[in-house]
Amino acid sequence: MLDSLFKPKSVAIIGASVKELSIGNRILKNLLEFGFKGAIYPINPQADKVQGVRAYKSILDAPDGIDLVHIIIPGKFVPQAVEDCGKKGVKSIIINSAGFRETGPEGEAIEKDFLSRAKKYGIRIFGPNCQGIINTDPDVRAYCNFTFTKPESGCISIAAQSGGVGELIHQGFSEMGIGTRIYASNGNACDISIPEIIKYFGKDPGTHVVVLYIESISNPKEFIEAARELADRKPVLAMKAGRTGEGAKAVSSHTGALAGKDITTDLIFEKAGVLVFKDEGELCRAAAAFALQPIPKSNRVGIITNTGGPAIIATDVLIDSGLEIPQLSEKAKEALKDQLYPEACVNNPIDVLATGKSEHFRAAIESLMNQDRIDSLFINFVTPFFVDTDSIAKEIANAGRQKKKPIICNLMTDKSHWTETIRILKDGGIPCYSFPSDAAKALASLVHYARLEPAEHDKISLFPNTDKKSVELIINKARESGKSFLSANDVYSILEAYEITTVPWEIADSPDKAVYAAEEIGFPVVVKADSESIIHKSDFGFVALNLKDADEVKACAEDMRKRLASDDLNFLVQKYLPGGSEVIVGAKAEKGIGHIIMFGIGGIYVEVLKDLVFKIAPISHKKAREMINGIKGAKTLKGLRGKESVYEDGIIEIICKISQLVTDFPAIKEIDLNPLIAFSNRVFVADARITI
Amino acid sequence: MLDSLFKPKSVAIIGASVKELSIGNRILKNLLEFGFKGAIYPINPQADKVQGVRAYKSILDAPDGIDLVHIIIPGKFVPQAVEDCGKKGVKSIIINSAGFRETGPEGEAIEKDFLSRAKKYGIRIFGPNCQGIINTDPDVRAYCNFTFTKPESGCISIAAQSGGVGELIHQGFSEMGIGTRIYASNGNACDISIPEIIKYFGKDPGTHVVVLYIESISNPKEFIEAARELADRKPVLAMKAGRTGEGAKAVSSHTGALAGKDITTDLIFEKAGVLVFKDEGELCRAAAAFALQPIPKSNRVGIITNTGGPAIIATDVLIDSGLEIPQLSEKAKEALKDQLYPEACVNNPIDVLATGKSEHFRAAIESLMNQDRIDSLFINFVTPFFVDTDSIAKEIANAGRQKKKPIICNLMTDKSHWTETIRILKDGGIPCYSFPSDAAKALASLVHYARLEPAEHDKISLFPNTDKKSVELIINKARESGKSFLSANDVYSILEAYEITTVPWEIADSPDKAVYAAEEIGFPVVVKADSESIIHKSDFGFVALNLKDADEVKACAEDMRKRLASDDLNFLVQKYLPGGSEVIVGAKAEKGIGHIIMFGIGGIYVEVLKDLVFKIAPISHKKAREMINGIKGAKTLKGLRGKESVYEDGIIEIICKISQLVTDFPAIKEIDLNPLIAFSNRVFVADARITI
Known about the structure:
The structure is a homodimer.
Chain A: H1 3-6, E1 10-14, H2 23-34, E2 39-43, E3 49-50, E4 53-54, E5 68-71, H3 78-88, E6 92-95, H4 105-121, E7 124-126, E8 132-135, E9 142-145, E10 156-160, H5 163-176, E11 182-185, H6 194-203, E12 209-214, H7 220-231, E13 236-240, H8 245-255, H9 262-272, E14 275-277, H10 280-292, E15 301-305, H11 308-320, H12 330-339, E16 350-351, H13 358-370, E17 376-382, H14 389-401, E18 407-412, H15 419-427, E19 432-433, H16 436-451, H17 468-480, H18 488-497, E20 505-508, H19 511-521, E21 525-530, E22 543-547, H20 550-563, E23 570-575, E24 581-590, E25 594-601, H21 604-607, E26 612-616, H22 621-629, H23 648-664, E27 670-678, E28 683-685, E29 688-691
Parallel strand pairs in A: 1-2, 1-5, 5-6, 6-7, 10-11, 10-12, 12-13, 13-14, 15-16, 15-17, 17-18, 18-19
Antiparallel strand pairs in A: 3-4, 8-9, 8-11, 20-23, 21-22, 21-23, 24-25, 24-27, 25-26, 27-28, 27-29
């Protein structure tokens, strides 16, 4: 447990300084000013007191039972300090000092040194090269951090790989007046990791929302597991920097970590069930909504406004974000008409007019609260000088306190004058924004979160009749003989073992046997040369389509043999099946993640448009269907220009079987079913490749 | 000239009220408090004084030579008030009152009534149903508006169709501390229009940047002309609401105006050379950058930061926005290395470290300012407690004052404590933002503006050898006979008159003549039935491809004649040209705009992906090339899978010729060249349709 870190009963500061502009001075100051509830022991060999607090020459001189120690001394002295802490029985250490792994081999050696000492004593290390932690829990009030923005209490916890961005988010929450619960920025993360912090947030009752800032994920599986568990209970909002090539370069020059490609991170976030943001301002504003308001049941928004234009802007953004703005029931409209000004508009958006008073707002709010067809309220509230805006704010705040449906407010006001109106809304827990688009996006985030599915809704059902034994044999044999590309025979046998239907096929080792095979399969057939020396068969004329009789097969096979004088040459003879739609299913091992499954439509969709969908295995039937529908060209599979729609369930089954196959056999590096030929009632694998 | 409106020397208020919460009271108060430089005449039949200012019973009693009158009385009294103003020689009137066109036919009649009286006297009307205007020019200080946020002086002028959004933007500028120059929200816009206001902004020397908020464009041609003229001299930033279907509905229920489809507005904005925004916050923040900083020469950004993460976020956003973050020259890196801390990073982003002092910032800024490969500076500035942030701010501000290259700053600070640092940056004209993404987007807007081309760079060269006479004859003849679909003969003759190459063709009125024609053209041929009664020929089997000899042509034509017993049946015989890529060029008349030209690639690109590009005619060669490159599937035209790339110049020529044709003949409603068949050295029209 990380209680000694996040809820320390005592904190010692090795490097507590009397110099005002030093970090060792600031941390003590922050602890004192924020009102830390535990004991504080400045460690300073020269001073008796630092900032009026009794100091100790060495950690060994301080009282026993210390939970947490800050170390803020030059890197080379850190191992000895950790050793001393060990002797003293310290539980956790925050190493604020820099000069370790991030500086090169010499620093890395020092990091290894202090880490092994810490392990010896069972001490947990936070950092090094980090800001530290903050816990605003009123029973703790630990500002163990050298930043400069006084924390405000709140229910959002932050874990950030960059102290700079962590502080940015923390400042954002302070400026918005929603505060922070726990803050953790763990720098080099040599011991305590983001997944561990995430787990801790999950158990902290004061944490209602979690915000993550990620630059690189060192152990994706561990991250997914921890984040998934947390996300099933609390909203997790995440942002990853280094999305672009240049950004990733900046990450690695900054942290030394190799940043993964963005697509992988997005898949990891998706698998973990976290809400992803690409804009940190949007993330902060969304977090405010999560902190203050309930999650809507669905996506139907009722808008109330007292000025037209901004409600239109909000409408655009909400619709663009996949929300709906349904009309009110006729009954509700009639009732509202009687309660609003005659010129008011009772469509959705409801315009109560700039002259609308508190009773008009109340009527509109109640109407929306009581209608089943509305899940959330968007209020656009301008504060004209000619109405009592405080009483309007009270109506909004009262409705907000009920926590029945979420209310988001775009507040158009002069902040220096309408202070009381603002205070009332704030006290009522109404998230207020300065631009309708910002408010609309925050509301949309609540809806998008409501749509994320908990892991339990995405159960993976396994196919029972797979012949794992055969596959194991094939793979082991191939491995022993040092092969990485499996032969056609092996590939098709593996697919058959998992009941993945292939186009009827046979392998023949001579032209005559190819004719034989063709006659057995039935004409017309396809003949493909199969040899380790050729990978892209069609590029070099080693695929012959639509061979109609024995003569054609023989001539073709002989020609191939002539052109490809290879010992291992075999002929793959398949039934020729014209028509149908070509799709592609693949799997690829990705370090630390397992396998990524790919789906796409053949031809220009893949080649020109890069129209592919990826997901991390294992994949449920539901997710497989989402993959198909996530393709831009999905329409072509659903019947176009009179063509019949393809057998989608067949494709889904193959995606799931491939997912199961690679999960069963992590040794598989890559599978390519390219193409699958999909007809209206059947799907066949027409060509496949497996590497191990 | 609208000087009497925007620079009034005197303002009378018909409806100046003693009631504190009334609009007639507020406008007077706003004028007084803002320090209007001219004379003020409250008109009030009962009071001798309003807010201490001498009032007049009637406008007729007030002194002569009044520039501007506010009318804030019930709608039905407005026509008489306008009449009185006319008698008095008033030049302009702002009608704040509502109750006119927006309320129905009765209100519309009143609007017509006062408008005709105004015209009689040569009075210009602003509104009705509007907020009014603000001019912060120190010689004017006209706060002729009933809003409540005290205007700050600035150089950005705002024209908004919605008072609510106008006020939102105006508040945004006040909050950002950049202020407003002229503000105009013209409500129903019965007389003075947005284009007129735009023209006025163009001539106002105090206006450096213009922001437009548009809900619907009533006269696109006039708008394009006015905005284009302005945009060639000053940055114009625009936003249109009602982008989504629901948003457009909200617009029309709000203003009664029929909102155009979004695509058209985007094309109008593009043609006008204005910078388009979809987020009003982004627009406001960009406007601040335009107001304070010069336009960069190109897109290469140098980043300076004193904390890692936020610079990475900025990098991602800049790259995503099409900007570049080039490496510094080796020489510059070497020089910088000597001037920064040893641990500092001299790559771009340059990390001067959190401990970086003013001299480090100065060195980094000077380095970027002096390098030709850098066009703009992005500074990410966190204010740690342990450095002298004021002196750093001074370095940034000094660099900003030079206006050599734009500087944008993401300032991470506690605004309640670092007030002096903030003040220094503000006085230096450095646009500061609270989030790196926001700052990066603002900088990107400057670059995007730099890339918009002035109209003069987009000259349209006309094709001289067009035979307008023949086309005129054909169109007139078709018109006289009441046809709207032109016959194949007419269509192909028109295309030939504009030297648009068609596949060799002939018209035959019998199967025998079709054979004749085919022999002349040379086999293989295509035969199409041509009759007014069939539009989609291929859908009904009235197109036969690849007919190889006389017998096939005859059989086919006779079969068509049998199935289509139509008097006007002709046979269009064309050379059959297999291979080649199918593309589509079209033109469509759009009310108020002229013609929109369309380009797309045939097949699934159009059918499934709706992959089409539109631009407003007339179109230059340059724009035509942009259209082709703007298509997602453009790659397929540039040589794919060993196929030769198509003759792009030929397609461009056809686009331009179609543009010229529809510009010459506005009577043409629609042209469809579908498909054009493009080969590596030639492009032919294979099928075409024209409606008039």
